[in-house]
Amino acid sequence: MTLDQYRQNYNEEDAVGWDCITAALDEIYDKQEPQHFGNALPYSLGGDNPLDGLSVYESTKQEDHFHLVSYGFSNLYYDEDKIEAEYSGYGFELTFRFKKQGDNNIHWAMNLMQNLAKYVFDSGKWFEEFHFIPTNSPIRLEYDTELVGIVFVLDPELGSIETPHGRVDFLQMVGITQRELDQLWENPKLAETEKLVDYLRQDNALLLTDLDRK
User: Fold this and answer.
1) Under 8 Å CB-to-CB from 67, ≥6 apart: which residues?
2) CA 51, 122, 17, 127 torsion: positive or negative?
3) Which terminus of the chain is less hemmed in, N or C, by CB atoms within 10 Å?
4) If you average pLDDT over every residue of the chain, what do you get?
């Protein structure tokens, strides 16, 4: 897209990248209105949460689950300097599919995603498909779960999109156990991570995170 085309299609009031993310979600969820949580004070101005927004959708595919999607790792707003870039911002947004179980609480998952965002924004490091990271505690505190790490995969429904600011990969967080995390530490090659993901996918095509998985 040229600068002239960008100016013809958008103006400074447009959330260009944000709307691209929402359009991708609308293709899957049609007219479902998600629960949306915004960030009142930007992180750069002292706000607690790095991400500009989080949306939570409800899905019945495979089995009932929540689908959490971030807004903030990519370039969300009108910016003529960002057009024709290969990647938008860090080049990804995070997603997280987790089973409805127990009290159906979603805030622990939002806190987890915001903590990962703090790591990215503070360190300048980013995630790619088949990266993994320990969470240094159970992924949900005050819940009896053996999941203590995250592996990142391309979201099986959202995949990647091209925006006027560049490509955005939707990286889905998948909870893993200490045993699985140790396995990856012993051989931290992408091929080994991909092998683990393929194993998890055998009876879990959407790679839903189940807090009760052993």
Assistant:
1) 56, 57, 58, 59, 95, 96, 97
2) negative
3) C
4) 95
